[in-house]
Amino acid sequence: xxxxxxxxxxxxxxxxxxxxxxxxxxxxxxxxxxxxxxxxxxxxxxxxxxxxxxxxxxxxxxxxxxxxxxxxxxxxxxxxxxxxxxxxxxxxxxxxxxxxxxxxxxxxxxxxxxxxxxxxxxxxxxxxxxxxxxxxxxxxxxxxxxxxxxxxxxxxxxxxxxxxxxxxxxxxxxxxxxxxxxxxxxxxxxxxxxxxxxxxxxxxxxxxxxxxxxxxxxxxxxxxxxxxxxxxxxxxxxxxxxxxxxxxxxxxxxxxxxxxxxxxxxxxxxxxxxxxxxxxxxxxxxxxxxxxxxxxxxxxxxxxxxxxxxxxxxxx
Length: 316
Prior knowledge:
Blueprint: H1 9-23, E1 40-41, E2 44-45, H2 46-55, E3 59-64, E4 69-74, E5 77-83, E6 86-87, E7 90-93, E8 98-101, E9 106-109, E10 112-115, E11 118-120, H3 123-128, E12 142-144, E13 150-155, E14 158-161, E15 172-174, E16 178-179, H4 182-191, E17 197-201, H5 210-219, H6 231-237, H7 241-257, H8 265-278, H9 282-290, H10 299-314
Parallel strand pairs: 3-17, 6-15, 14-16
Antiparallel strand pairs: 1-2, 3-4, 4-5, 7-8, 9-17, 10-13, 11-12, 13-14
Helix pairs in contact: 1-10, 7-8, 8-9, 8-10
């Protein structure tokens, strides 16, 4: 049994903060309507489904297919948002099967998540590319790096994952999954836990232009090697822990004092959390916990507590 008296003050503060995150208590709400442009969802009207999720006061991911945008919120407070690539809505048929490449509406939950995941190509990929369909366990189905820096799986074969084609974000470009930039996928990976609610709304009747999809496919070049890992994350992984901790604090200060700048503290914090969990670097986790007491309240504190909850949930 660990007695509170044996814990440092910063760990007590962290535990108190994580109590709020783990219990999913309501945060301070923003007194305005959610910024989602929604239509009807398969489980009820889009606005009602999204509003019910937000009203529960928990961490929630909302994907708006009308705007092709993802929102990560705590209660009604939006912590960050980013453009996403979503399903084209087009259909592929073969003599044996047919596939609809849409992103469905509904309420989902995080089933599991992976760093640097390997994509296992389904049958439609081979049909679409005019190739014979191999057995289900054939290594030709495996594509390391094709899901970017991280993937969050939400059930029904759907994932929210990174991409090496960020220029296509904000469009209907995928076969149903939800694409983020690699840095945003890395951020979401550390923001959510198993069971986090994901609400997908909007997009009824919308499809991509088949001619534009065909043009993009023609312009794609063959892949001789896996896509490279995100250069920022790779560069951060090479830096010593003490430098990363200092840089994390600096980037947090910039994020709350300067508008219009790139938010880099989540990438740095994610690397530190991974270093603590995977490499058992106590200095990394100790340093991450030590930042808690100075965060106060607000958007930064709400998201940072989600990162700490991830560290506790996945750590030993």
